[in-house]
Amino acid sequence: MIKDNEKERLLTHKLNQKLYFSEIEEKLVRVTYGLMSDNVYTIDRAIPDLIKIINLLELEHEAIMLEINRILELSD
To answer: At residue 24, does pLDDT exceed 70?
Structure first.
């Protein structure tokens, strides 16, 4: 049985993860909108922003994989 502290920690973690993905999504929308609507915001300026977004997604992917492995280890 999961204790209340563990439930609270899990809820906090999931809320933070959701917020993190929302922030990444907002950055991606901003870059996309800038490319579509602004002749000044060029692909050359967008590429570093897109690389940052990809890196953030990769970090989050690694964190999710670590959490999955932790859960698997606890279930053994």
So the answer is: yes
Contact (CB, 8 A) for 15 and 8: no
- Residue 50 contacts by C-beta under 8 Å, 6 or more apart in sequence? 28, 31
Global pTM? 0.69
Q: For the chain, what are the domain ranges?
A: 22-75
Query: What is the C-alpha separation between 40 and 32, in angstroms, rounded?
Result: 13
Q: How far apart are CA 42 and CA 44, in angstroms?
A: 5
Helix spans in the chain (H): 4-37, 43-75
